[in-house]
TrEMBL record, chain B:
Biological process per Gene Ontology, one example term: P450-containing electron transport chain
CDD domains named in the record: fer2
Originating organism: Stenotrophobium rhamnosiphilum
Descriptive protein name: 2Fe-2S ferredoxin
Family designation: Belongs to the adrenodoxin/putidaredoxin family.
Gene Ontology molecular function: 2 iron, 2 sulfur cluster binding; electron transfer activity; metal ion binding
Gene3D superfamilies xref list: 3.10.20.30
Pfam families, alphabetized: Fer2
Length: 439, 108
């Protein structure tokens, strides 16, 4: 969408064209052109086939906002646990599990993906660690980390090297933040990135056996690292989140060791991968949509506007585009009868783009009165636990980047931007940029 | 000794709970007792605005105002915001709130 189009649309009071139309015939969500630019596909789904069977994925795609909320508000009918299990290491699960049991200290299902009431027990324990009020106290240290990384970017660009907004900035930043929270000291960004991609690939439906074997080896490495850190804290507690988890008591007793491993693993991955994707998206948007960069410039000194900027960014470019559920009984959704054990894919990104909820959904509009209605963090019992931390990281980045860097531009043609090969997240793999120094 | 709390749901139905333990948040009472519109998705982290209530005028002084962080979260649902809006996960029950009455905001 061109800036001129947006302005023209705003003047006439009409929306721009949106994404344009797309045909659903013979098309899958996994097709490369859909993966790269999914908007027209989502729009066609919402219009013509809101609960749509994707033959290649063997899944029902849920694209309308109201249906998405219906699914997410009914976690016993649309089970995370069963959806996740069906999706996990799809096609290679037994072999994957054996590798983890043999080389990775065990196979530990994700407790965050359990169903109530088992999920509730652990969730209540974890909620306390991520409150908006606790996260607010982290702002100074996150600001310092962001500025340190911007210093490095500026130095590298000053040497005439190409700077990568994802690998030189977004990923190391989110890794540094979560390491500090967990108490890991500083881990190598390359290592955590490799771990994250290996874990995320297990729900991405797009790995072959060779990739599964490489990913399983990475996950074993990750788990062996976590287990060693936990064992050290069993003997000697420290002031960090891993220690809290090792010694945590839920309302009905102790957190099991395997549960704690899965929680630390989830925090390392969820704590960096999705937020890094959001920050990558932010830089991409600033580099390609001058009107949004201008909006940010004008909002940077007003905390309220800056919060709104972050929320609208999450609505318009949600890092998590889709997650799986499975029906536990026959049910009707959006006029479509679904059998028991149907594989369901919830398209958060399409919900955020639903024109029945968000007027002119492709307009970046800070003044929406229902900004908080977006589903980028999910809805219901599995709503993102790290939402406040993620918002804080994105906000500080937006503020500091705009204060210190100007005229951010892509250093490669836009059609050379590639996305990670997974249906679950929309993650830019590499983002070469140029910029000028400001102040 | 417990306190008495009343939620008026968006559909007009009143739900009153007697002898509720202090030290928990109003959101927890609403969620545990299936008060319609009190979801508490973020578990009381002040991050989601799914426990939005309007505090009735006679209770506003005792409850007090929202802090900056809560105001920021309420700003995300500005179409539903009123001057007596609060996120009830941020209202800790204490003896002075015995008899409190709140109206549940419409769902997002």
């Amino acid at each position: 969408m061109e800036a001129g189009q947006v302005e023209a649309a705003q003047k006439t009071g009409k929306c721009p064209m949106g994404h344009g139309s797309a045909s659903l015939a013979g098309v899958s969500m996994t097709d490369p052109q859909v993966m790269a630019a999914p908007g027209p596909f989502y729009q066609a789904l919402r219009k013509d086939s809101p609960v749509h069977y994707d033959a290649k994925l063997n899944m029902w795609l849920v694209s309308r906002y109201d249906d998405i909320v219906t699914v997410l508000r009914d976690p016993l009918t649309y089970s995370d646990k069963h959806g996740y299990a069906a999706q996990y290491a799809s096609g290679f699960f037994e072999e994957f599990k054996q590798i983890l049991e043999r080389d990775g200290g065990g196979f530990f299902p994700d407790v965050i993906k359990d169903d109530p009431p088992a999920h509730t027990r652990v969730r209540r324990l974890m909620d306390k660690a991520f409150t908006a009020h606790r996260v607010a106290t982290l702002e100074p240290q996150i600001t310092a980390l962001v500025n340190k990384l911007i210093d490095q970017l500026v130095a590298k660009a000053g040497d005439g090297q190409v700077v990568d907004g994802v690998n030189d900035f977004a990923i190391p930043l989110t890794i540094a933040v979560i390491c500090e929270q967990l108490g890991f000291g500083q881990l190598s960004a390359d290592k955590v990135k490799a771990w994250s991609q290996a874990v995320t690939a297990q729900i991405g439906r797009m790995q072959n056996r060779e990739q599964m074997l490489a990913n399983a080896a990475q996950i074993c490495d990750l788990q062996n690292f976590i287990i060693a850190e936990m064992r050290a804290r069993e003997a000697q507690p420290r002031e960090d989140m891993v220690s809290d988890l090792v010694h945590a008591q839920t309302e009905d007793g102790k957190l099991e060791f395997g549960e704690a491993v899965s929680l630390v693993r989830a925090m390392i991955i969820a704590g960096n991968d999705t937020t890094a994707s959001a920050i990558g998206n932010l830089i991409y948007v600033l580099a390609t949509q001058p009107e949004v960069a201008k909006t940010l410039q004008e909002s940077v000194d007003d905390d309220r506007l800056l919060n709104r900027f972050v929320e609208e960014l999450l609505r318009i470019e949600p890092p998590v585009r889709a997650l799986a559920k499975m029906t536990t009984k026959e049910v009707e959704l959006g006029g479509q009868k679904l059998p028991e054990h149907a594989h369901v894919m919830v398209l958060y990104a399409s919900g955020n783009d639903d024109e029945t909820q968000f007027e002119c959904p492709r307009n970046f509009d800070l003044n929406r009165t229902n900004l908080g209605k977006h589903v980028a963090f999910g809805v219901g019992v599995h709503r993102c636990i790290g939402a406040s931390l993620s918002r804080m990281e994105i906000k500080v980045v937006a503020r500091e980047v705009v204060r210190r860097l100007g005229d951010i531009k892509l250093a490669i043609p836009v059609d050379q931007i590639t996305y990670a090969p997974t249906v679950a997240v929309r993650t830019i793999e590499r983002l070469p940029i140029t910029f000028t120094r400001r102040g | 000794m417990g306190v008495k709390v009343t939620f008026v749901q968006a559909d007009g139905v009143e739900k009153t709970f007697d002898d509720v333990a202090t030290g928990q948040s109003l959101m927890e009472v609403g969620r545990f007792n299936n008060v319609e519109g009190i979801m508490g998705d973020c578990g009381g982290s002040c991050a989601c605005a799914t426990c939005h209530v309007y505090v009735t005028p006679e209770w506003q002084a005792a409850v007090g105002p929202a802090d900056d962080i809560e105001v920021a979260t309420l700003d995300m649902v500005s179409d539903l915001f009123k001057s007596n809006s609060r996120l009830c996960c941020q209202i800790q029950l204490r003896e002075e709130l015995n008899g409190i009455r709140v109206v549940v905001a419409p769902s997002l």
